[in-house]
Amino acid sequence: MNPYVGLVSSLRAAWLTGKTRATEHRVSQLEALGRFLDDKKQPILDAIASDMRKPPFEVELSEIILVKNEVNHALNNLSSWMKDDFVEKNLVTQLDTAFIRKEPYGVVLIIGPWNYPLNLILVTLVGAIAAGNCVIIKPSEISSSTEKLLAETLPSYLDNDCFAVVTGGPAEMTQLLENKFDYIFFTGSPQVGKIVMAAAAKHLTPLTLELGGKNPCYVADQSDLQNVANRLVWGRCFNAGQTCVAPDYVLCSAETQEKLLPALRRAITQFFGPEPRESPDFARIISDRQFQRVRALLGSGRVAIGGQTDERQRYIAPTVLADVQPSDPAMQEEIFGPVLPIVTVPSVDEAITFINRRERPLAVYVFASDSKLVHRVLERTSSGGFGANDTMMQMTLISLPFGGIGNSGLGSYHGKFSFDTFSHHRACLLRSTGLETMNALRYPPYSQRKMGLVTSVFEIKRKGTCTLL
User: Which of 134, 217, 244, 252 does the annotation list as catalytic?
Assistant: First the structure.
């Protein structure tokens, strides 16, 4: 028998009582999540340092502050989010009430990745709680210290009738997915995303897939190249490059490549010193398997900067690969490490063509002094998000949806978008039992007279047009 049947059933029983629908319950659980982040700040720093030696600054910014922002934003806006949205009515329904009610889906499964092991679980959880769901969260077993922290401490803050943490690897996740959930939210690779989607399809379960991809970054000839380099190195080396929205490769002219390389070298030295291995501000690769995978990509093009590795520490230096060919290994998969390939193209039009020949990424970046060029890239490419003259910063705005398109994902979240993702928008029309004479117009037997009257009260006409008689 499936080991999670009882757990899912108990959460469904709790959901059916209606307790998670109450505003007070949602607020209490969001406040408890905020206390968890405050109380466990040091254990969080220690756990993520243990997993990938992530610097405290990066942990506090990306794993604690951004999650607290989501908690506080939800608490500040929950009452307005939960209100019914009243909608326009036609002539027939003028005396009736028409609205959209945001209802919880029920029992939700959240599957998190290892690269941001707290943020990508808890930001999602905020939306699921705010929307009134019961939730099972499944942290990644690869970030084992953070998984252990969540499993051992988070349940003491949340209502255990409504929320649970499940640990384990692929076998446990497979068994978990055999159960019927009302919504699934998965963050990870496209390969595993397809497995999750297939499992959801068996139960016709709706889902969100937050996947990845190779995020291109076009650098125009007319750019402040030192500023470009600073922002590229920060985006590529934050969390040792293990970020789904990091710039994955650069497209630029051969002339710009030669000017950009010394600027990138200066930025790396300024950020991490002459020996980045000794810097306390540079993380490590999460696992031996990931280290070996990323190291194998260093044979692409030529190593212009960095390239040093230490298998024992799972250290890969901030590395720039120049003159990379589209057929090289580094261009065949998402890098997920501190390695930045540069592919030269003769023009922005060639860069756009290059981007559009590949799967649609999670983000497209462009650096250019010319705003017309920026808008050209924006209008002629497709991606989950877009950033001009910086990298990754779009995901810090709660007011923007975060999500992919095509191979990079399905659906979005952050802020109110998270609440909407975990809410069923129920169409409601409340009518009176009277005025049956009006209703008789739509009942058989039909006639041309009835058709004319029904058309006059139901028809929507296009604005700004007229008919000449």
Answer: 244
